């Protein structure tokens, strides 16, 4: 057995179902992965392949790890952005890029993944010893699966792929969880119960821990409202009366209102990273900050916390539910008051935005697109994501996610063109769902050719292009008939210019996806600049 086939055996033992990437890499070129029953998907560019692997890890809560492979040199260089995005968004995957021949791997100016990927991966190794395949692959998968999920990289010099493995007996990695200190849990329970206006802020760690039920139990026991990060959106059902929605560059009015009023902010499964696309931090001198996270390096990184818990989000939440339950009666008597306040502020906020959401103006206001999308699509049967910039900012406040992992939120490094690969990966994980991505001119220009991958690989997603002929607020005129491009690439394409045609066009496109054809709707929109970003300091 050579190294190539040993790696494939390791992937199968780890439960890998998909290998995404771009030739030339022996894992693709020899047919070894396909022969072992792993579905190989070749994309038009390396970055999209990484994005698809990213989605598989996120939408299975890290239980399934997808792999990525590519050519040495240009392939590894092109994939750098995708790995960096997955690192920033805490998405698990295992990348196996080829490297130059072992004798030349450190020769300038050859691109060396071991040197260059260390800052954007959780672990990064170069496999040069054929006898070390088993331990090297096990370390990579263990790193991706345990603790904070992030990419692991194993570079294999291209000549090493064909060397014989002296002995190979692979045991797959394990996945482990750790709970928070029980004594600190008791102290935090006291803080939460004594708070007059507590707010819970849930991050992506709740998804990875599958802590959705425990989060809901804690909120209902405390009778406390819940906000989420953009990555954590859908961790708490947004049709629940205690939901405040997701914090982002654009967010619901009730979220900012309750953040201003909170005397205790309990963040769970979040990093509290300071970013333009996340929570506007409250003043820690006026608000007691309690931070629960799996990664201890997040504690006091950007936001100083008075109390901190380190451990798996679900285990921590379950422990808090028990401790808080011991301290409160079945009914604290404030549920109706809190819900009424949420609804009052929400209605005021929506009233401000209703004119944009329902306007008949042309070019079409993008908020009208969001409004029609929410009316046509059953959120319970869909998984939706967005691209950077305006598509994210238009969608996030107004789309209500009701099921866990039905929204793939992101925004820390804001790489254009990310959403298409996420939607395709989502469709592979959940073929029964309608998988949607919303993007603009910049994003479709970056990765739009990979719509052909969706057609070629029978991945029937719905992609909606908000075409205002420019990128965000930059005065850079773009052009093109992208509906025609969608048709030319093997899918269904339709251009929409009349607001009354948005809903019928959506219905036609959705029907095409049910028939197995990916659909691209190009909607000609106005250059909208208003965003819902209530000032926390008001």
TrEMBL record:
One of its GO terms (biological process) is carboxylic acid metabolic process. Residues 185-320 form the Thiamine pyrophosphate enzyme central domain. Keywords: Thiamine pyrophosphate. SUPFAM superfamilies: DHS-like NAD/FAD-binding domain, Thiamin diphosphate-binding fold (THDP-binding). PROSITE patterns: TPP_ENZYMES. It comes from the Archaea. Residues 1-106 form the Thiamine pyrophosphate enzyme N-terminal TPP-binding domain. Pfam families: TPP_enzyme_C (PF02775), TPP_enzyme_M (PF00205), TPP_enzyme_N (PF02776). Its cofactor is thiamine diphosphate. Residues 387-523 form the Thiamine pyrophosphate enzyme TPP-binding domain. Belongs to the TPP enzyme family. This is Thiamine pyrophosphate-requiring protein.
């Amino acid at each position: 057995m050579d190294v190539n086939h040993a790696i494939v055996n390791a992937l199968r033992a780890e439960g890998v179902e998909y290998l995404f990437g771009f030739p030339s890499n022996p894992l693709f070129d020899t047919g070894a992965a396909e022969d072992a029953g792993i579905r190989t998907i070749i994309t038009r560019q390396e970055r999209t392949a990484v994005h698809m692997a990213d989605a598989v890890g996120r939408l299975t809560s890290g239980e399934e790890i997808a792999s990525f492979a590519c050519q040495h040199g240009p392939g590894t260089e092109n994939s750098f952005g995708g790995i960096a995005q997955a690192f920033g968004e805490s998405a698990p995957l295992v990348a196996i890029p080829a490297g130059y021949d072992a004798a030349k791997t450190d020769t300038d100016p050859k691109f060396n993944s071991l040197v260059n990927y260390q800052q954007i991966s959780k672990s990064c190794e170069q496999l040069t010893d054929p006898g070390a395949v088993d331990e090297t692959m096990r370390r990579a998968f263990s790193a991706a699966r345990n603790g904070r999920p992030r990419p692991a990289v194993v570079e294999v010099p291209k000549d090493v792929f064909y060397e014989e493995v002296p002995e190979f007996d692979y045991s797959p990695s394990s996945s482990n969880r750790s709970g928070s200190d029980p004594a600190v849990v008791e102290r935090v329970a006291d803080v939460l119960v004594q708070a007059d206006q507590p707010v819970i802020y849930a991050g992506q760690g709740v998804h990875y821990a599958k802590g959705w039920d425990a989060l809901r139990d804690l909120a209902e026991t405390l009778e406390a409202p819940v906000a989420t990060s953009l990555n954590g959106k859908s961790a708490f059902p947004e049709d629940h009366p205690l939901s405040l929605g997701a914090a982002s560059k654009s967010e619901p009015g009730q979220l900012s209102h309750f953040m201003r009023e909170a005397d205790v902010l309990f963040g769970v499964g979040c990093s509290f990273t300071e970013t333009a696309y996340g929570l506007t931090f409250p003043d820690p001198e006026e608000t007691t900050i309690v931070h629960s996270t799996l990664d201890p390096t997040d504690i006091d990184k950007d936001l100083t916390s008075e109390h901190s818990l380190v451990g798996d989000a679900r285990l921590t939440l379950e422990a808090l539910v028990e401790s808080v339950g011991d301290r409160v009666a079945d009914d604290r008597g404030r549920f109706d008051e809190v819900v009424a306040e949420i609804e009052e502020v929400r209605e005021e906020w929506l009233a401000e935005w209703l004119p944009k959401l329902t306007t008949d103006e042309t070019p079409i206001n993008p908020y009208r697109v969001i409004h029609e999308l929410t009316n046509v699509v059953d959120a319970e049967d869909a998984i939706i994501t967005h691209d950077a910039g305006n598509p994210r900012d238009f969608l996030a406040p107004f789309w209500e996610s009701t099921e866990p992992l039905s929204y793939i939120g992101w925004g820390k490094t804001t790489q254009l063109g990310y959403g298409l690969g996420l939607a395709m990966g989502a469709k592979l994980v959940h073929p029964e769902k309608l998988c949607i991505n919303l993007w603009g001119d910049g994003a479709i220009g970056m990765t739009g050719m990979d719509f052909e991958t969706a057609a070629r690989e029978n991945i029937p997603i719905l992609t909606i292009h908000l075409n205002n002929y420019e990128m965000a607020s930059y005065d850079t005129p773009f052009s093109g008939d992208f509906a025609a491009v969608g048709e030319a690439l093997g899918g269904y394409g339709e251009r929409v210019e009349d607001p009354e045609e948005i809903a019928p066009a959506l219905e036609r496109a959705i029907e095409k996806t049910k028939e197995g054809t990916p659909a691209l709707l190009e909607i000609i929109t106005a250059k909208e600049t208003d965003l819902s970003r209530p000032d926390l300091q008001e």
